[in-house]
Amino acid sequence: MSEHTKTADDFFDTPLPTTNLPPKEQRSQLLQALLDMDPDISFDDPLENDMVLNMGPSHPATHGVLRILLRLDGETIVSAMPELGYLHRGYEKIAENETYHEFITHTDRLDYLQPLHNNVAYILAVEKLLGIEAPVRAQYIRTMLSELARISSHLVGFGVMAMDVGAMTLLLWCFREREKIHDIFDLVVGARFTTSFTRIGGIAQDITDEGLAAIRAFIDQFPERQQEGERLLNRNRIFFDRCRNTGVISAEDALAIGLTGPNLRGSGVAMDLRRDNPYMIYDQLDFDVITETEGDSLARYYVRLAEMKESVKIIYQCLDKLPQGAVHAREPKKVLPRKERIYTRMEELIHDFMIVNFGVNPPEGEVYHAVESAKGQLGFHIVSRGEGHPWRLKIRSPSFCNLQALPQMLKGHLLSDILAVLGSLDPVMGEADK
Amino acid sequence: MGLESALGEGYLTTKLDALVGWARKNSLWPMPMGLSCCAIELMSAGDPRHDISRYGMEVMRFSPRQSDVMIVAGTVTYKMAHVVRKIYDQMAEPRWVIAMGACASSGGMFRSYSVVQGIDQFLPVDVFTAGCPPRPENLFNALIELQKKVEKSSVLDYRDRKEPIIIS
Ligand code: SF4
């Protein structure tokens, strides 16, 4: 063994770092014993020290792989600290090595409860960078499908929150509805789950009449099914008592932490990018921004329920107003040509070769574009140096910011309230960890 | 057969292996190691449409002590790999592992600094399932293949040390 190789003994001999430690008089007995490396201390009162409990990363109610460290006094939470990164897949680095088109598939896996919304958010940022815009019909289809994705995401939020506080039936009912949405995606997009539907300057393929009929059939029956589900929970005493006044956060705190989406609107701040900074065709649609004022788990739950109804309203309007026309912008150097044309025309073949191999080469510059996804404000910040792939791509993921509120929301509550609070925050770890 | 005629009617004889294999195969309790996107399809497998209980496998146990087959559904990062391995070690034998999806099988689309390129680097895998994510039907296919494998396995040496099954 060379002399540079460290063994376990070396680590024991190294004194512990002593910065940031409280002065000797204020240290707890346990901390002092740890510092002295004293293996046989005993406590007169075992309850003198707070209990530290580890929750996750493999726990049915942490919505994936979230780990929460809790300091408990009896059953009351003294402090809570979420630890993230168990699903860190390195998206931002991956993006730097892929062309703009290639990265679309990666956006599906960011927030995997609503892949289509991520596709749309990303592609809008790229289009802004390129300075092109998709035709109106494509915008309508994108809007319609992303509202469907919002419903499917809220359905999981709704069902999982109910399951966490003990109502299993609702989860099964929500998944029944989600299956119907998956069927629509299967028909319209070609994949039931990971959609990758958007393209620069348009969408992968136009929607068929069959697809439109399927969407209409779904939203015709959906409000009634939602009512059924609500009836199970809204008058349920147990659910009510567990969610009311838990995880309360005031509007100022919510804004300071950077909450967005239903979690912010549950605290009474009517902020919705669809209305405040309309993208696509949201300025031509009529919908309400839902708010509740209590700021507790129940309020956030109500916001989600009402938002599903608004989404249905939006989809109806899109279906009624859907214009005819092309679904691809006329930008041959930026937009992938149709497959039929690639095989028969020289010009298209060259463009396809260039776009696939070298990318779309946007001008130098930076853009930021955010959309209101089901979880909150989902933004992409792209820095371009004129190459086929981004120089830097930063993802502003709503779940990551929303989770920052957890320590504050949990403080002073009982251990079992974690489930209600976490369920009402509705984080997705794929997006939070990136 | 000699033994049956000696015992008379009303008796059924079989190999112990066959009996145990039959019993084991029909009560595989999964431990859903849901990590990311594939976990949502794993949840879909339990929904009313796909109904995993048709195979006697709806008893999802989040406690490793009570489960027989670990379904690793999702991207395993280096940070998570220790946890997955620890949970596997806590499971009681006999135990099996299904790698659900491209990520668990091979790292999938994430050739990045933080993702383990396939869980077979730290776990013995019985069935690899392709797809990103695999449809629930494909997961059932994997479970049925696993059932066949379990049925054939021996009581003494339950783990078939030959090639794992690859479903594409
Ligand atoms: S295989 Fe695909 S769907 Fe499954 S976890 Fe990996 S990226 Fe997600």
Structure description:
The complex is a heterodimer of chains A (434) and B (168). With 434 residues, chain A is mainly alpha-helical. Chain A has one domain (90-433): Orthogonal Bundle (Cytochrome-c3 Hydrogenase, chain B), CATH 1.10.645. In chain A, 48% of the residues lie in helices and 10% in strands. In chain A, helix 6 (136-164) packs antiparallel against helix 7 (168-188), helix 6 (136-164) runs antiparallel to helix 13 and helix 13 packs parallel to helix 18 (417-425). Chain A starts with 7 loop residues before the first helix and ends with a helix. Chain B has one domain (30-150): Rossmann fold (3-Layer(aba) Sandwich). Chain B has helices spanning 2-7, 16-25, 37-45, 78-90, 101-106, 136-152, and strands at residues 30-34, 69-73, 96-100, 127-129, 165-167. In chain B, helix 4 (78-90) links the parallel strand 2 and strand 3. In chain B, 40% of the residues are buried. The radius of gyration of chain B is 18 Å and the shape is elongated. A 5-stranded parallel beta sheet of chain B has the order 1-2-3-4-5. Chain B is built from 6 helices and 5 strands, in the order H-H-E-H-E-H-E-H-E-H-E. Chain B is an alpha/beta fold and 168 residues long. In chain B, helix 3 crosses helix 6. Chain B starts with a helix and ends with a strand. The chains are: A mainly alpha (434), B alpha/beta (168). The interface between A and B is medium-sized, with 32 and 33 residues. The complex binds iron/sulfur cluster. Iron/sulfur cluster binds next to helix 3 and helix 5 of chain B.
